[in-house]
Amino acid sequence: MASSPFPSEKPGLVDPLSSFSDPPKRTSxxxxxxxxxxxxxxxxxxxxxxxLPNPGTVENLQKEVKLTHLxxxxxxxxxxxxxxxxxxxxxxxxxxxxNLGSQVAAPSYNFGAVYATNSVLLQGGVDHEGNVNAxxxxxxxxxxxxxxxxxxxxxxxxxxxxxxxDYQGKDYSLNVKAVNPxxxxxxxxxxxxxxxxxxxxxxLGFETLYQRQTPELTExxxxxxxxxxxxxKNWIATAQLQPAGILxxxxxxxxxxxxxxxxxxxxxxxxQRRDAIATLGAKYDLRxxxxxxxxxxxxxxxxxxxxxxxxxxxxxxSGEIDHFxxxxxxxxxxxxxxxxxxxxxxxxxxxxxx
Length: 354
What we know:
Elements: H1 26-50, H2 63-68, E1 77-87, E2 91-100, E3 108-116, E4 120-127, E5 132-139, E6 144-152, E7 160-168, E8 172-179, E9 188-197, E10 202-214, E11 217-229, E12 235-242, E13 246-254, E14 259-269, E15 274-285, E16 289-296, E17 300-310, E18 313-322, E19 327-339
Parallel strand pairs: 1-19
Antiparallel strand pairs: 1-2, 2-3, 3-4, 4-5, 5-6, 6-7, 7-8, 8-9, 9-10, 10-11, 11-12, 12-13, 13-14, 14-15, 15-16, 16-17, 17-18, 18-19
């Protein structure tokens, strides 16, 4: 009888492959967490089926109200903003800003430059006193942006560095930032916020601030946020509850394609101070002009008119009357834009030769 072509196993020898026959210990670990992964998977599928929108960032919680009111646009004295476009792709612009005759600010001059591509934004400026400010936005994707802001001041204690990371999820937004962080003793200001859509129109969130002035002196505070957007997105209501009993609510509505109105109410109900300020504002967009008006409970009535006589030239007139203090402020300004680009480079149709 022919012998087998495979040698028989000798007694006392162990097959080296027999050690792999036992099931790995990792299997028991996976079986232990499998209910959790299954629960998370079902939760993710249910969350996706809701099709909730992104609520926006906490920083832009009151964006529509700020664009309607005069808080960020009001000025007094004389003002001139001159800008020149040097390139379109990538975008490159330089500007000169002059301010003088103001009742609340000293005369100033600022030179600025902006460089932008699809993923990078660089912005910088220097004033007549040598103070330098810079800003960098780096977009890694459509949902992730890293931001940096810096300021170098001639005054002691006014220099600043801020690092920020912003992430936009499908139905939530997450933001973390650090102001003047120190890697040695971890001093600085650290802020984190989370904003989550709960329904198609309602979003809830919070913002936490951790301030560490010295290793021995720290401060911790949390604000709670709410935002409700109408079904047609023509009105937005927000509320923000801050520490020390400060409540701020806003309401914005777009009445038509040209008219927007906004209201802001800030209530302070602290142990040492009780106060409330209400502000009403409206914005009216004409074909070549924009008019803003505002009235608040402190007795201030203000208005701003921005009239464009040409796409590259605008004239501004602002005024404010404080009835309680019997004071008034008036401002005039011009905005001039020029370009070295040809109409073809700017994407415009060339003018016909006559």
